[in-house]
Design goal:
mainly alpha, Proton glutamate symport protein, two-stranded antiparallel ribbon, globular
C-alpha cells in the first residue's frame, strides 16, 4: 500500500484537529489529564524540534551554498549579474508583501489584534518593550547586530542576523584558501548539511502530529472564529504573489530584457504547472531548463548556470511569504512594528530565503528565524501550517517563474538575440 505524501497527512491531521477540537472543551480530561495540556505539550515539542534545527541547518546551508557559488571563478561576470538579479527580485517580492500586509492587516480584526481570537498565549511584553519608540535611527543598530562580537553567543541568544552574516563571509572565504584546506572545509560543511537534511526530514515526519495538536488546541479554546484571520492572511499572500508574478516580473522582462512577457508565460507553462503540482523548485528544475532552452531560446551556457543557482538561492515567493507571515503574527500579537523592526523583517527574509533554499519546509524554518529576530514566539506558525500546502504550491510557481525570467534577462544581457523570437 503506497504511503500518503506528507501534505496529505497534514491535511488529514488538520481535519481531525477541527473535528476533535470542536468536540472537546477546556475542561475535558483523559485519565485525569487535561486535553488542552496534552495538545500544548505536543505542539510545543514540535516547535522545539524545529527551533533545534535552526542554527546548524542555517549555518551549513549558507556556508555550502556560498562556497559553491563563489567557487565558480570562471563565471564571475555571469555570476555577478545572476546574483544581482536574484537579490533585486527577492527584495521587490518582499517589499510587495510588506506593503500589502500593512495595508490589509490580516492580523487585526475589528480594530483589535487577533491574538485572543486565534488562541495565541505566549508573552510578548519583552518584544513590545524593545520596539516601542523605535525609528529610523535604529537602522544602525541592525547593522551593528549583523557583526557580532561573539558569533557563538549570538547564535545561542537567537541573534540570527549576525550568524547569517558570519556564515556568508565564512562560505565566501572558504574558497579563498589553499585547495587542500578548501576541500576539507567544504566536505565537512557539506557533511553537516547532509546530516541536518536527514534530521529535518525526520522532524517533518512528525509535522502532522504537531499540526493536529496546535490546531486542535486553538479550535478547542477559541472555536472556528480563529480561522477568519487565517483566510485574510491567505488572501493577502495570494494577492502579493499575483502582483509579483503578473506585474513585477513581466515589467522586468519587458523593460530590462526587451521581450514579450506573454510569450515567456506560454514558453514556461509546462514548468509552472509542474512547479504548482510538485511544490518543489528542485524537482521542477529539469522541466524548467527544458522550457527555458527549447521554448524560450536561452543558450545552454546561460541556462546551465543561472537555473541551478536559482533553484539554490532564488526564492522570491518564499521570501514574500516569510515576510507576510511574520508581519501577520506580529499584528496578531498587537506588536507595533516600526520602521526599524520592519527593516529587520525585510533583511532577514532576504537572507534566509537564500540560506534555506532547497531545505524541506524551508519557509517554516525561515519564519521561525524571522520571528526570533524580532523577539516573537514561534507558536503562531501553528495556524499558518493549516494553509501552508496551498500557498507552497503557489509560491513555488513564483520561484520557478522568477528563475526563468532571470535566465532570459541574463541571456539578453550576454548578447543573446534569439530569445523568445520564435
Amino acid at each position: 500500500m503506497p504511503k500518503l505524501k506528507l501534505h496529505w497527512q497534514i491535511f488529514i491531521a488538520l481535519l481531525l484537529a477541527l473535528i476533535i477540537g470542536s468536540l472537546v472543551s477546556t475542561d475535558t480530561s483523559i485519565v485525569g489529564i487535561n486535553v488542552i495540556g496534552i495538545f500544548s505539550f505536543i505542539g510545543q515539542l514540535f516547535l522545539n524540534a524545529l527551533k533545534m534545527l535552526i542554527v546548524p541547518l542555517i549555518a551549513a546551508s549558507i556556508i555550502t551554498g556560498m562556497a559553491g557559488a563563489s567557487r565558480s571563478s570562471g563565471f564571475a561576470r555571469l555570476g555577478g549579474k545572476t546574483l544581482l538579479y536574484y537579490a533585486v527580485t527577492s527584495l521587490l517580492a518582499i517589499l510587495t508583501g510588506l506593503v500589502l500586509v500593512d495595508m490589509i492587516s490580516p492580523g487585526i480584526v475589528n480594530g483589535q489584534p487577533a491574538r485572543d481570537l486565534i488562541g495565541l498565549s505566549a508573552d510578548t511584553s519583552a518584544a513590545l518593550s524593545r520596539t516601542e519608540g523605535r525609528g529610523m535611527s535604529d537602522i544602525a543598530d541592525i547593522f551593528l547586530r549583523m557583526v557580532p562580537t561573539n558569533v557563538v553567543s549570538a547564535a545561542a541568544n537567537g541573534q540570527l542576523l549576525g550568524l547569517i552574516f558570519f556564515c556568508l563571509l565564512f562560505g565566501f572565504f572558504v574558497t579563498r584558501i589553499q585547495d587542500h584546506y578548501t576541500r576539507i572545509m567544504t566536505d565537512f560543511w557539506q557533511g553537516v548539511f547532509e546530516v541536518m537534511m536527514r534530521i529535518t526530514d525526520w522532524v517533518m515526519k512528525f509535522a502532522p502530529i504537531g499540526v493536529f495538536a496546535l490546531v486542535a488546541k486553538v479550535v478547542a479554546t477559541t472555536g472556528f472564529a480563529a480561522f477568519g484571520p487565517l483566510v485574510s492572511f491567505m488572501m493577502t499572500v495570494l494577492l502579493a504573489l499575483a502582483v509579483h508574478i503578473f506585474i513585477t516580473l513581466p515589467l522586468i522582462l519587458y523593460f530590462v530584457a526587451g521581450v514579450s512577457p506573454l510569450k515567456h508565460f506560454r514558453a514556461m507553462m509546462p514548468a509552472l504547472l509542474t512547479a504548482f503540482s510538485t511544490a518543489s523548485s528542485s524537482a521542477t528544475l529539469p522541466m524548467t531548463m527544458d522550457c527555458v532552452e527549447k521554448n524560450a531560446g536561452v543558450s545552454n551556457r546561460t541556462t546551465s548556470f543561472v537555473l541551478p543557482l536559482g533553484a539554490t538561492v532564488n526564492m522570491d515567493g518564499t521570501a514574500l511569504y516569510e515576510c507576510v507571515a511574520a508581519m501577520f503574527i506580529a499584528q496578531a500579537y498587537g506588536l507595533e512594528m516600526g520602521f526599524a523592526a520592519q527593516f529587520t523583517v525585510v533583511l532577514v527574509a532576504l537572507l534566509t530565503s537564500i540560506g534555506v533554499a532547497g531545505i524541506p519546509a524551508a519557509s517554516l524554518v525561515a519564519i521561525v528565524v524571522i520571528l526570533a529576530a524580532v523577539g516573537l514566539p514561534a507558536e503562531g506558525i501553528g495556524l499558518i501550517l493549516a494553509v501552508d500546502r496551498v500557498l507552497d504550491m503557489c509560491r513555488t510557481s513564483v520561484n520557478v517563474f522568477s528563475d526563468s525570467c532571470g535566465a532570459v534577462v541574463i541571456g539578453r544581457s550576454e548578447g543573446e538575440k534569439e530569445i523568445l523570437k520564435g
